[in-house]
Design a protein that fits this description.
By secondary structure, this protein is an alpha/beta fold. It has 15 helices and eleven strands. It has an eleven-stranded mixed beta sheet with strand order 1-3-2-4-6-5-10-11-9-7-8, with helices on both faces. Helix 5 packs parallel to helix 6, helix 9 packs across helix 11 and helix 9 crosses helix 12. The longest helix is centred in the C-terminal third of the chain and has 22 residues.
């Protein structure tokens, strides 16, 4: 039965429809794998009874011909998505005991399509982090290890639990959220596929907010096709989200034609950053050659304001976080630490409930929004954001998509950068610009580092043109022929 966990999502869907195995058998196979993977710490909450109940309902629908597009497929959900009657923590102490009475729109879409919930996946606290080291529930461990080195590695963040679970075959696929690279960066560090769709493509309703103008939900999967199938189910207009865009959701999997002849791919000069490892440059060059061989036209482009993206992001995102996290005060839900009066209760609860990284970003955000600094920092960062969006707009007059590295290097050891916030923030140097511009971006596993760790290539597309992104990503995936897997050292 363990062989079932080696099927990708598309193959598992075909097998269920052909009655080769049941949804209960598939779910039991994943529950067995989850029970052997405590060392990875991917899940905050597991719901085996609920999973089997959902699987039995899926089998009934498969039998009577009313199956949905994801019927019987076991998924993991990042613990930033509210799930009705299932603990939702955002990996923070301050949300202790919070069990929503409602379902996020994205997860509701998945259950409506027939998917099965295995559990809630670990993440950086409130999605603030690039390594999954800020969770109140402990570090997620990357299933990959360096050659001849057993040091535990980070899986990337903030969707590190999702990425690690997909890579370790603990779920068929998972949801993530991406504010500055939190889907694409962990996908690259774990050898999986992750796409951040266009801002507004997936509803944010019922997702615990970090930075509202940047947050976007997306899928994390083993293949480009799996990601396309999952995104189709996740996406759609939601009247409960004022930023949700009302436009049809395409059949993304149908876009995987394998034909990119004549597609123009931009190569931005500004993504060759100082100190970039030679192996990242070689992989980027290889990706360019793969696309050229497939008939794409490569075009040198310039995105001149790219160098300002990271500093602008780390003003805008903390400012919005400061506002969003003001609601966590111990009054209505979650942790409450008593005090002699209301103000002291607020202070005690927030001091004990938030971790160090969240506190750091709240302080930065409050500072840049304060009187006397709002114009100097926040408004200026928003103007830079507009310039970055204009750079992309000008580039897309010449090209159809842009190819870049996903990360400046492979996974690093836990604790290696945790004392240096700036070094940690630099992990998102290639991913942040797409968030500031609201554009879709996908990371595809494309090779291994010298130490045997996964490396990814990123494609950035035009707004709401995920179809082209999937089409090019499919060709990139086929050319890279990445089939490496971590050895299952974590199995207990």
């Amino acid at each position: 039965m363990s062989d079932l966990t080696e099927l990708d999502l598309a193959a598992a869907r075909d097998g269920l429809r052909a009655k080769e195995f049941s949804a209960v058998e598939l779910t039991e196979a994943y529950l067995a794998e989850m029970s052997r993977a405590d060392a990875l710490n991917c899940f905050i909450t597991q719901v085996p009874d609920r999973a089997l109940e959902m699987a039995r309902a899926s089998d009934a629908r498969l039998a009577d011909g009313t199956a949905g597009m994801l019927e019987g497929l076991p998924l993991g959900i990042k613990d930033l998505f509210c799930t009705k009657d299932v603990l939702t923590t955002a990996a923070s102490h301050i949300l202790d005991g919070f069990t929503p009475a409602y379902e996020s729109t994205v997860s509701a879409n998945l259950w409506r399509a027939g998917a099965v919930l295995l559990g809630k996946l670990n993440l950086d606290e409130f999605a603030m982090g690039s390594s999954n080291e800020t969770s109140y529930y402990g570090n997620v461990i990357n299933p990959w290890r360096r050659q001849d080195d057993a040091a535990p590695l980070v899986p990337g963040g903030s969707s590190g639990g999702s990425a690690a679970a997909v890579a370790a075959r603990l779920c068929l696929a998972a949801t993530g959220t991406d504010t500055g690279g939190s889907i694409r960066q962990p996908a690259a560090l774990t050898g999986t596929v992750g796409i951040k769709p266009t801002y507004g493509r997936c509803s944010r309703w019922g997702i615990v907010a970090f930075a509202s103008s940047l947050d976007q939900a997306g899928p994390m999967a083993r293949t480009v096709r799996d990601a396309a199938i999952l995104l189709q189910a996740m996406a759609g207009h939601d009247p409960m989200d004022s930023t949700s865009v009302d436009r049809p959701v395409p059949d993304y999997a149908a876009a995987l034609s394998g034909d990119i002849r004549g597609v123009r791919i931009g190569i931005p000069a500004e993504y060759r950053v100082d100190g970039m490892p030679a192996e990242i440059e070689r992989l980027w060059q290889a990706g360019q050659q793969w696309l050229r061989d497939a008939g794409a036209e490569l075009v040198d482009i310039s995105l001149p304001h790219t160098k300002y993206a990271l500093p602008a992001y780390y003003i805008v995102a903390p400012a919005e976080a400061s506002s969003n996290l003001a609601r966590y005060d111990g009054v209505k839900y979650g942790l409450r630490v008593p005090g002699k009066d209301l103000i002291e209760m607020y202070e005690n609860t927030r001091a004990e409930g938030f971790g160090a990284e969240v506190k750091r970003r709240i302080l930065i955000g409050t500072y840049v929004l304060s009187a006397g600094y709002y114009d100097a920092y926040y408004l200026r960062a928003q103007r830079v954001r507009t310039l970055i969006a204009n750079d992309f707009r000008a580039a897309y007059e010449k090209v159809d998509a842009i190819l870049t590295p996903t990360t400046p290097g492979p996974a690093f050891a836990i604790g290696e950068r945790s004392d240096d916030p700036i070094a940690m923030y630099l992990n998102d140097v290639f991913t942040v610009p797409a968030n500031l511009a609201g554009l879709p971006g996908i990371s595809v596993p494309a090779g291994l580092s010298q130490s045997g760790l996964p490396l990814g290539l990123q494609l950035i597309g035009k707004a709401f043109d995920e179809e082209t992104l999937f089409r090019v990503a499919g060709v990139l995936e086929q050319a890279a022929a990445f089939d490496a897997q971590p050895d299952a050292w974590w199995r207990s």
